[in-house]
Amino acid sequence: MAIPLGSIVEALGGELVGSPDAGIRRLAPLATAEPDELAFVSNARYASQVTLTRAGGLIVTPSLRAAASARGPCIVTDDPYLYFARLTQWWREQHAVLPEPAVHASAVVHPSAELAAGVDVGAFAVIEAGVRIGPGARIGAHSVLGEHAQIGANTRLYPRVTVGERCSVGDRCVLHSGVVIGADGFGFAPHEGRWIKIEQLGAVRIGHDVEIGANTCIDRGALDDTVIGEGVKLDNLIQIGHNVRVGAHTALAGCVGVAGSADIGSGCTIGGGAVVLGHLKLADGVHVSAASVVTRSLLKPGHYTGMFPIDDNASWEKNAASLKQLNRIRERLKAAEHAIEQALQKNTKP
Fold first, then answer.
1. How many other C-beta atoms lie within 10 A of the C-beta of residue 211?
2. Section 229-256 average pLDDT
3. Model confidence at 349, in pLDDT bands (50, 70, 90)?
4. pLDDT digit string (tens) for 88-112?
5. Considering the chain, what is the average pLDDT of its residues?
6. CB neighbours of 267 closer than 8 A, spacing ≥ 6?
7. What integer pLDDT is reported at residue 30 of this predicted model?
8. What angle do CA 341, 346, 349 make, to 5 degrees?
9. What distances in angstroms separate CA 315 from CA 236, 309, 311, 319, one per listed residue?
10. Is 95 a catalytic residue?
């Protein structure tokens, strides 16, 4: 079913140039879009593709208005990327076909659990004693909610999500398949060559509008709770250790590891494969490059990188060998500076 461009602008705003009746059947990348598809241009370096694309419509900045309108209909907006993001949400709402909410006959729901209006529970899900689920939430097949867990309104758990006992998830969250909330944190005390388990007595608290990617794990706290702030976005395969705090609207890319009791501020980004060591603090607005290892607290906002540049192996080994000598060279340099300073002082005496 084609959607008129006029309907999109009516829903999302922007300036429509051209016919409002132009039909759009799909959203597509700029390079491969077809005449019945809508694409966007958010960066000036792609401006040359405006005249080359076959897209039936474009979302562009005001600076590209003339070029885009010369080839066909377009939507003009200050931030095409943001507009496109909102368009994808609206598009899914228009095309989503969700069944009427119901509790599947094979689901196991404890009598003391409280399910609000419009809750959908998939096949073979398990909802234990004292669980509370807000209106409009959807619990996927084979998901498990432990005792006294709480799920907020309009939150969606995809199949095979586990939310442990006493853990809470806010409103409008999305937890993808394989997510585990509230497994035990990694706490053991050494004793005579063995490890003695420290029971993890805290929980996990997740704020509103959080999205968590597939197979990501967030451990419960040892005593206090692990806390994920409002609007946080976590990619796939992330490990969040016990008692970690992640501030509002921070985003972590795939395979990030955050060790126990780290405190990450609001509005931060951490690139894929990066590691944050335990008990460190990252200030609001810290941005860490992919594959970095954060070994100290970062108390000022900014962009930080902590990785050794890739090189051919022979060069890398030479550089690594040089790095091992840095401290010795540093001490020699300090001794030389001290000797020069003493000599200068001696020569300047009357």
1. 16
2. 98
3. low
4. 999 999 988 888 999 999 999 999 9
5. 95
6. 247, 248, 249, 250, 284, 285
7. 94
8. 125
9. 34, 11, 6, 6
10. no
Give the rounded distance of the alpha carbon of 144 from its chain centre: 23
Helix 326-348, helix 313-324: angle, nearest 10: 50
**Superfamily of the domain at 3-95:** MurE/MurF, N-terminal domain (3.40.1390.10)
pTM: 0.91
The one catalytic residue in 242, 279, 287, 303 is: 242
Which helix (H) or strand (E) element contains residue 91? helix 80-95
Please work out, in degrees rounded to the nearest 5, the angle formed at the alpha carbon of residue 92 by the alpha carbons of 90 and 98: 125
Q: Kindly indicate whether the domain formed by 108-304 is annotated with CATH number 2.160.10.10.
A: yes
CA angle (108 as vertex; 106, 114 as ends), nearest 5:
130
Residue 320, helix vs strand vs coil: helix
For residue 228, the SS3 value is: strand
Distance of CA 150 to the CA centre of its chain: 22
Secondary structure of 165-187 in the HEC alphabet? CCCEECCCCEECCCCEEEECCCC
Q: Copy the structure tokens of residue 265.
A: 């501020």
CA 296 to chain centre: 22
